[in-house]
Amino acid sequence: MEGMDVDLDPELMQKFSCLGTTDKDVLISEFQRLLGFQLNPAGCAFFLDMTNWNLQAAIGAYYDFESPNISVPSMSFVEDVTIGEGESIPPDTQFIKTWRIQNSGAEAWPPGVCLKYVGGDQFGHVNMVMVRSLEPQEIADVSVQMCSPSRAGMYQGQWRMCTATGLYYGDVIWVILSVEVGGLLGVTQQLSSFETEFNTQPHRKM
């Protein structure tokens, strides 16, 4: 018997140990991870509930029911517009993170899509921003108001596009943040936003 255990893949064993768990939150997060964050927690709970909280059966049910009917939108990450690699930010500083993304598919995105925080460090309270429906091959910038952590160090968070029905799609996009006491980026951004505010003030009164 001992000889048989040697060949078993430890990751597979870990997945099977998860199948036996009664903690529904663990099953939901494992289901979500196995699907590559294609589905929100409520959607995961629906399929798990339908299959008596059997993870393997739930995944089978998801692919049986969902795959033929769903045309998943496409999204490609193009580039970081603000806070690129190697730029640093002081602790506890407000900043705006902007990504450039593209609808890389052949169909327009459905209405009501948004960009959602899915994992890692969140940087502030915003966990979702609405995004307009892009036409095929159209490129747009998406911005999120964030705040750097209070301690110096390297941080990272992941965000994904999500439809109104809770289906995640496209590339995972990252915020990789270097927090340093002498970091300049947040200060530069604040100065340029004050300047914009100052320049646009007279127009607002009209």
UniProtKB/TrEMBL annotation:
<dbReference type="InterPro" id="IPR032350">
    <property type="entry name" value="Nbr1_FW"/>
</dbReference>
<dbReference type="Pfam" id="PF16158">
    <property type="entry name" value="N_BRCA1_IG"/>
</dbReference>
<dbReference type="Pfam" id="PF14555">
    <property type="entry name" value="UBA_4"/>
</dbReference>
<dbReference type="InterPro" id="IPR013783">
    <property type="entry name" value="Ig-like_fold"/>
</dbReference>
<dbReference type="InterPro" id="IPR039517">
    <property type="entry name" value="C6orf106_UBA-like"/>
</dbReference>
<dbReference type="InterPro" id="IPR009060">
    <property type="entry name" value="UBA-like_sf"/>
</dbReference>
<feature type="domain" description="Nbr1 FW">
    <location>
        <begin position="82"/>
        <end position="179"/>
    </location>
</feature>
<protein>
    <submittedName>
        <fullName>Protein ILRUN isoform X7</fullName>
    </submittedName>
</protein>
